[in-house]
Task: inverse folding
């Protein structure tokens, strides 16, 4: 809506489907399942959060199923979906997302941008020239050409060419908390029913997901190469699906740049930071980075306080989501493989340890904006 795209056309052209949340299994213990629905869980009662009353019910010996207090999860369990703007007045506050094929989304958005006047150059960047104050003056191309600009957005993925290779901004590694560093993905037969949610199952050395699109299902596996070989991971994935192609493999490193904005270069997407797809936040982070940039858009003076504010906001967001992903692993009761046993003795990041201690002591979750 913000850039004038019609959602129905977008869904049609990108073969997207609707999503109400994620169903996760075998994380806390093998055989146990929980949900991340997209909407509110329960309702405020006497101005207190719903989860207080859920705990009280448990203390009284009741066995409330948390997911049944979520409208989105109830719809998902029944394989149902309805637009909240429907004329029947049904579920007017339903929150939903989209399952996306990112390659098709990229093509769609590229076409939309070019129709809006964006000029796209097919060039290979080989180096950059810098001004006396350290800012990037121009990108140098393989064909001998160059491109001068006042502001550069680094969207070069994990390579982080301007922010990392040119400006030498360091990388803050999260692998001591999140050891998964390999990803396999494959298109698979979609089946008779496309459930309006993603299924995520914990595996011996990571997790496996299944996301329904219109024509195929996107299936993938994330794993730690220190705990599982590439061949074993591939066999694990292929035994769980009806593959329609050979799986694609990718190496990645979880963490973030020390600063996403330096001088006149701003890293967006994986150039700024990378987290495993357990939480499915790649496009969320890229979108938030763009809105954050609009909030902090510079003039030619590139005020340092403005840049520092942007970096603090983007860094804190990545760390909050890092902690959220880590919760899936560090609260486990599993000890059946070395991968899961390592989390029992893990020293948590201070930000997560403080919140965990507070919850265990008081039963309160302090929600910080814009969580």
Result:
């Amino acid at each position: 809506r913000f850039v004038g795209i019609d959602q129905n056309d977008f869904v049609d052209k990108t073969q997207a489907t609707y999503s109400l949340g994620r169903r996760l299994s075998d994380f806390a213990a093998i055989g146990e399942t929980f949900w991340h629905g997209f909407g509110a869980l329960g309702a405020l009662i006497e101005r207190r959060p719903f989860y207080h009353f859920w705990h009280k019910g448990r203390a009284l010996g009741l066995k409330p199923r948390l997911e049944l207090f979520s409208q989105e999860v109830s719809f998902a369990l029944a394989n149902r979906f309805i637009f909240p703007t429907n004329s029947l007045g049904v579920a007017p506050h339903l929150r939903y997302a989209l399952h996306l094929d990112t390659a098709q989304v990229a093509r769609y958005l590229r076409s939309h941008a070019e129709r809006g006047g964006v000029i796209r150059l097919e060039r290979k960047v080989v180096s950059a020239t810098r001004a006396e104050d350290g800012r990037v003056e121009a990108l140098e191309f393989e064909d001998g050409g160059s491109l001068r600009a006042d502001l550069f957005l680094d969207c070069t993925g994990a390579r982080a060419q301007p922010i990392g290779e040119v400006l030498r901004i360091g990388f803050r590694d999260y692998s001591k908390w999140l050891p998964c560093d390999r990803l396999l993905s494959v298109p698979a037969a979609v089946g008779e029913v496309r459930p309006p949610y993603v299924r995520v199952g914990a595996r011996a050395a990571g997790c496996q997901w299944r996301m329904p699109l219109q024509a195929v299902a996107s299936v993938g596996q994330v794993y730690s190469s220190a705990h599982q070989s590439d061949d074993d991971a591939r066999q694990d994935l292929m035994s769980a699906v009806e593959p329609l192609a050979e799986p694609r493999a990718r190496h990645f490193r979880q963490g973030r740049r020390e600063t996403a904005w330096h001088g006149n270069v701003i890293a967006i997407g994986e150039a700024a930071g990378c987290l495993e797809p357990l939480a499915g936040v790649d496009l969320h982070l890229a979108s938030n980075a763009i809105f954050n940039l609009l909030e902090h858009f510079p003039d030619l003076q590139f005020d340092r306080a403005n840049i520092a504010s942007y970096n603090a906001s983007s860094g804190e967001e990545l760390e909050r989501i890092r902690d959220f992903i880590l919760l899936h692993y560090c609260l486990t009761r599993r000890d059946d493989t070395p991968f899961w046993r390592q989390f029992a003795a893990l020293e948590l990041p201070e930000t997560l340890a403080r919140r965990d201690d507070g919850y265990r002591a008081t039963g309160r979750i302090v929600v910080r904006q814009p969580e």
In short: The chain has a mean pLDDT of 94. Residues 304-330 form the longest helix (27 residues). The two ends are 22 Å apart (CA to CA).
